[in-house]
Amino acid sequence: MLIAKVIIDIASSLVDKVFDYLLPSNDFMVGQRVLVPFGNISKEGYIVEICDHSDYEESKLKTVISSLEPFPVILKEQLSLASFMKRKFHTGLCDAIRLFLPSEMRSSRVKELIKIDCYIEDEIKAKTYLSSVRKNATSVIGIINLLLEKGSVSQTEINKTFNSSSLKKLINDDIVKTREVIIRRKPYKSVDNLNSNTITLTKTQSMVVDRITNEKNVFLLHGVTGSGKTEVYMNSMQKVLESGKTGIMLVPEISLTPQVLMNFRSRFGDSVAILHSGLSSGERFDEWQRILLGEAKIVVGARSAIFAPLKNIGLIVIDEEHDSSYNSDSNPRYSTIEVAKERAKLCGASLVLGSATPSLVSYHNAMIGNYQLLEMKERINKREMPPLKIIDMGNEVRLGNTGIFSNALKDALKKTISENNQAILFINRRGFSSFLMCRKCGLVLKCQDCDVSLVYHKFEDALKCHYCGNRYKVFTECPECGNQNLSTGSVGTQRVVEELENLFPNISIARMDNDTTKSKDSHLKILSDFRSGKTQILVGTQMIAKGHDFPSVTLVGIIDADVSLYQSSFAASEQTFELITQVAGRAGRADKSGEIYLQTYAPKHYIYRFASYYDYPAFYKKEINLRQTTLYPPFTKIIRILFTSEDENLAKDITKIYYEKVKLIQQEYKSSFKYLGVMKSPIGRIQNKFRLQILIRMMRDKEDEIIEKLFNIADDIKKPNVSIFVEIDPQNLS
Ligand code: ADP
Ligand code: ZN
Q1: How far is the CA of 587 from the centre of ligand 1 (A)?
Q2: 151 or 709, which is more confident
Q3: How high is the pLDDT of residue 528?
Q4: Which residue, 123, 110, 129, 127, is CA-closest to 152?
Q5: Which residue's alpha carbon is at the smallest distance from atom 4 of ligand 1?
Q6: Whose CA is nearest to atom 9 of ligand 1?
Q7: What is the distance of C-alpha 535 from the center of its chain?
């Protein structure tokens, strides 16, 4: 008797294991979706293995009821990926498998779109028939003539013009035949003009393409903004296709950067499938089918496209690899880069991580030889990077200017407007939570133990460290210079727009932030109005920093650079450098040169100095030394174990049990543990679930061992109604 090992489609850590079932016949395959009895109901599940014996008594096993599709929907490679994710991130198997299928496919909420096509098989028979019908049977005559002329026409189309009973009669009389045709719903139909106008690569670009396509490796492509990375990706994909293989191209938040997608579509046409959350469920299902059936050879998509059912992959590209959207920080939690590395390894593909501002961890990996570093140091047209001016806002205050804009930025705006160019004003929302800062000397209060900025909690009127939980009284004067003008919070986009309108009453200004982009496609409208020149100044948050290419932008103002510098994270400097470089990269991209004004209360900060020279290697050297001295990633790992439950006491109890067990591990690995603490999460309740957390910072020598133990504790003490998540190097500690 054949035994199927089945994962039941229930996302609960309590059911997350493999169940044995008997197979009723030999027609089942690994990767197939099946219906099985579970308890006293039937459930959907996935066959992950077929074998001929079970560790359980066979007479007690239940039998698989039926298969849901006649073919496997999950590749063996994907099953390996699921078990990798379980090992690496403690992801539930069912949670992982759900990433591999369009969600609407489960419980059959989406189907193929089927069209009925009508055609004539026997022309002579049809013509004879035609000569025999009465002259006033206009519908019958019309349908036959139409089909004789066009070959085949869909039933819906015919019924639009002709009498539907006539068509029925013709089908009954066997004159007209029908067949079912599957229609693929296609996203972005409008972008279809194949553009064969191929650009000649520069020497640097072709060297990079050669290495990517000739070696099987993990590459870090560090190319300044405007150095032509997209062209490198497309040419590498082209070569991969020519060698008979396929590829995945990941981009962050497609809805904001539709250009890459357009580029790929116009270069590769229907061999490209697109996967992201903005598609309709029908479109997503059809794109997924085209990939599974091998009709599509290149998949372009947001992070979850790394799970596409693509066979024979030769190349995976992760563009803007530093982008935080590649880390999934809600269930299932995973790092897209780690998953991509594993997938590339499983199928023998190259992996390219590309960015103008690589993450410190990735660049470090390149420095120590884990990745191959590829560099593109110049913009395509050899244009200089735009000059970046640092404006001392403390000085503005001393001169009596307490507004949002420095005098220099105001003058630059005036000039830009009078010359009919465009400006982008960037408001930083990265840190989001507010810090306390001296308006005179720029001092920001930091934690004594952690070297991160303290966060002001208005409700409790206290300053807190989000890393160790230390609390501090709110200062009324600056401990450094005695000034009493301390301020919290940050400027909002709305206030910036108001002040702009006062300064320039006749100018059209657009605002792009979470508030103005709630409805579907609103961000596309804002961007296209700006591109067409309908609006002259664009005020926005992080959303406007990414990859946009606006040729008429000559001025970029960064209103409050310090916000991300003083956010409560050890990675604050890195994120600030990244942000400034990306925002600055929006200016002077075409024929007109550009300039950047960066407003700060800490004009001497080394991050601003390096950013103003666009000197990534210098920034890296300084920052990596700092991380090494202070023992932060990549020299340590930060682990958060997050407990959530609607029952506060239950959450507390489980947290306590877990904490006691971690303390034992700490005893065993004394030298590895640099920090261990337990606390309420900074956001104590989300969606009515209470949140507590254990934080660990540890050396990396025994990391695998320790992490495995932490996973095991979670498995041992799990209970209904409380969730335990072990997060490795989480980006978000809220
Ligand atoms: P990046 O992604 O590195 O910021 P892009 O790929 O957007 O840069 O390229 C910037 C611009 O240069 C684009 O408009 C692109 O079409 C153009 N470009 C890229 N490679 C070449 C080339 N070899 N010759 C001419 N133009 C190029
Ligand atoms: Zn602290």
Answers
A1: 15
A2: 709
A3: 85
A4: 123
A5: 226
A6: 228
A7: 29
Ligand 1 centroid distance, CA of 318 (Å): 17
pLDDT of residue 196: 59
Residue type, 537: I
**For ligand 1, what atom is nearest to the CA of residue 376?**
3
Residue bearing the CA closest to ligand 1, atom 1: 226
- Atom 6 (ligand 1) nearest CA: 228
pLDDT of residue 490: 57
Which atom of ligand 1 is least distant from the CA of 319?
Answer: 2
Query: What share of the chain in percent tops pLDDT 70?
Result: 93
Task: Tell me the whole-structure pTM to 2 decimals.
Answer: 0.84
- The alpha carbon of 230 and the centre of ligand 1 are apart by a number of angstroms equal to 7
CA 689 to chain centre: 25
pLDDT computed for residue 202 by the predictor: 94
Identify the CA nearest to 612 among candidates 571, 572, 583, 569: 583
Residues 220, 158: one domain?
Answer: no
> Does residue 537 lie in a domain region?
yes
Q: Which residue has the higher pLDDT, 196 or 475?
A: 475
Q: Which domain holds residue 531?
A: 388-429+491-626
Average pLDDT over every residue of 583-593? 80
Whether residue 221 is found in the same domain as residue 328: yes
CA-585 nearest atom, ligand 1: 4
- CA–CA distance from 400 to each of 82, 280, 396, 406 (Å)? 61, 54, 6, 11
- 616 in any annotated domain: yes
Tokens linked to 198: 């191929």
CA–CA separation, 639 and 633 (whole Å): 11
| Ligand number, closest to the Cα atom of 464 | 2
Residue with CA nearest ligand 1 atom 10: 226
Nearest ligand (C-alpha, residue 206): 1
- Looking at the 3D structure of the chain, how many domains does it have? 5
pLDDT-wise least confident of 346-360, 474-488, 661-675: 474-488
DSSP 267-306: HHGGGEEEE-TTS-HHHHHHHHHHHHTTS--EEEESGGGG
Q: What is the pLDDT of residue 431?
A: 43
CATH of the domain at 314: 3.40.50.300
* Domain-embedded: residue 614: yes
d(CA 679, CA 655): 9
Spatial distance between the Cα atoms of 139 and 394, rounded to a whole number of angstroms? 83
C-alpha of residue 453 to centroid of ligand 2, in Å: 9
Please report whether residue 36 resides in a domain: yes
pLDDT, mean of residues 544-555: 81
Instruction: Give the position of tokens 């008429």.
Output: 552
pLDDT of residue 432: 44
- In this structure, the answer to whether residues 257 and 299 fall within a common structural domain is yes
Q: Which of 26-30, 141-145, 156-160, 463-467 has the lowest mean pLDDT?
A: 463-467
Ligand nearest to the CA of 697: 2
Ligand 1 atom with the smallest distance to the CA of 227 is: 3
